[in-house]
Amino acid sequence: MNDHDIDATGRGEPERAEAAVRALVSRLHGRLTRPDHPEYDAARRVYNAQHDRHPALIVQAADTADVTATLEAARSTGLALAVRGGGHSVAGYGTCDEGLVLDLGGLNDCRVDPEARTLRAGGGATWADLNRAAAAFGLATPGGIVSTTGIAGLTLGGGLGYLNRRFGLACDNLIAADVVTADGACLTCREDAHAELFWALRGGGGNFGVVTAFEYRLHEVPDILGGPTFYPLDGEVIRRYRERICEAPEALGALLAITPGPPLPFLPEAWHGRPMAAVLSCWSGPEQDDARIGEWLADLGEIQGQALRRMPYPTINTLFDELLPPGLHHYWKGCFSGPPTDEAIAVHLDFGARLPSAETATLLFPLDGASGRVEAGATAFAYRDAGFATALGPSWSDPADSERNIAWGRDYYRALRPYTDGGGYVNFMADDDGHRVADNYRQHYDRLARLKARVDPGNLFRLNHNIPPVDRVA
Asked: Is the pTM here over 0.70, yes or no?
């Protein structure tokens, strides 16, 4: 905790704000950092460099008590509250200008019960933290595709990744959550306790409280056959993928990507930087079927390069970490749809042929198998009937290229929109997608807004893809 002088802070009365901040400092076990501190720039930095913001206060929490103290300070000062988990928040909601940031990155402990096959993880953990702990026992739970992603944001938004077809979404494997609500109450939510809040946490995003711990169901996944397979960017490859993924064994997680060929040894130099189609594979079935998976991939088209091998499950989540390091600029869009129509494939080919940067990728996540068998109303994730979730992911290094990359993403989304189901995965939404939130939750939106009015009537947790309390809905 810093011990430098605390000035008046907040939009309310200066004396009241100063008293609230002093009270916060006196209670913290973690650290409070202000703009005059030498570590301020490091503390305020986030994964997406597109959001270069300057909060008035940054609390790096050490425990749940720090979370409750920070929420009390936010209520007392009237400062905007940004909650930062362990990872990305590509839309920028993990930071703010002139507000209060609650950084949970220090709450990243992960503990496995191998007999019960459960794992308890702090709200600031990343998938690297969780996967490493579970893999020590040959276990795993569905997560994302990049190890630096935070478990909190991904799970609260639903949770798409490699294991969804076999084991469901990340939120389907959540069995309990410790939550601090806007009024400072500390609740343990599960199916038989605070069930409505537990329902909302599974897909409803960061609208309902600060989750300080997650408890997951684990599955036996000692190792996998995984890695990328690259093809020419060709409509026939996409059509074959569309037709065959739904017939593939559910232990095959296979994402379709449209991306520049990477400058890696397994891909001929002639393809480096050229737009390509790729399938990112994660076969968690028996090793004796590995050859059959190789044949399945070969049947999709002419393979130009492949890096397919047996590996521990956590490794598959690290393959793209170096391609997407912290400090890049990102602008994402997302949509749900059935299997891509020929018209939608034409859009993908058009925009894929003119990718705006070497780091950009479009990803199609299949939502069949275990993900699609969960009842429509079982969680707040609203698109169980969608065949695919599509992520349009412009990413770039030079801020001077922002306008061009963002325009590409927006134009791509507009061209694809007629062939979608209307909504989009909340974790793929950009910061200018607030008008799409109701569509993203469709039949669940009113129920979520009513719950929001009960647990957060003042909309303290509004820096997210926000669901206003029902009495604030126009």
From this structure: yes
